[in-house]
TrEMBL record:
GO molecular function: hydrolase activity
Signal peptide limits: none
Name used for this protein in its record: NUDIX hydrolase
InterPro entries: NUDIX_hydrolase-like_dom_sf (IPR015797), NUDIX_hydrolase_CS (IPR020084), NUDIX_hydrolase_dom (IPR000086)
Keywords for this protein: Hydrolase
Cited Gene3D superfamilies: Nucleoside Triphosphate Pyrophosphohydrolase (3.90.79.10)
Annotated ranges, domain Nudix hydrolase: 19-148
Species of origin: Limosilactobacillus alvi
Pfam families registered for this protein in UniProt: NUDIX
Length: 159
């Protein structure tokens, strides 16, 4: 089996599948005035999920530039500061990928417009304790969002 598009290549046999992400990806945790911005994103299961902005890197695009671009595309915002939080892999047993997580400090929400063409229906701001309550109550189930929140918690005292 062999299949490929601009972002992924799928190879496999009767015993194993391998999905290779051909470009990198970025996941961004936006922060404004000690609150965290989560998207309300309509997904394939028909439900609206709380998620952080994320996306693929373009061919030969640096990860930091991709993070700036994705924030601009999804929210029409630009960060005042971008902090690298670490890397994640969505499924190390199946998917070869390079995904970098960032904390994006926002100086303002002026001009914020969500990218409705990508099924983003809105956004909300949450304090850190509210964000963790959403995790505890299974109101955040997206793996990229969960990973990025955990990466943030691991460095927050150094921030």
């Amino acid at each position: 089996m062999d299949w490929k598009n601009n972002y992924y290549q799928l190879t496999g046999s009767k015993r194993a599948l391998k999905l290779t992400q051909l470009t990198g990806g970025v996941v961004i945790l936006p922060r404004f005035n000690n609150q965290f911005l989560l998207l309300e994103h309509l997904r394939v299961d028909g439900q609206v999920h709380y998620e952080v902005p994320r996306g693929f890197t373009e061919l030969n695009e640096k990860f930091t530039l991709a993070a700036h671009r994705e924030l601009n595309e999804e929210l029409n915002l630009r960060p005042t500061k971008l902090t690298f939080l670490g890397e994640v892999m969505p499924d190390s047993g199946l998917i070869e990928s390079h995904i970098r997580c960032y904390l994006a400090d926002l100086g303002s929400l002026k001009g914020l417009v969500v990218q409705r063409s990508e099924q983003i229906t809105g956004y909300q701001l949450f304090s850190l304790s509210e964000l963790l309550m959403l995790v505890r109550n299974n109101q955040i189930i997206d793996g990229f969002t969960l990973s990025t929140v955990l990466k943030y918690l691991a460095i927050k005292d150094e921030d």
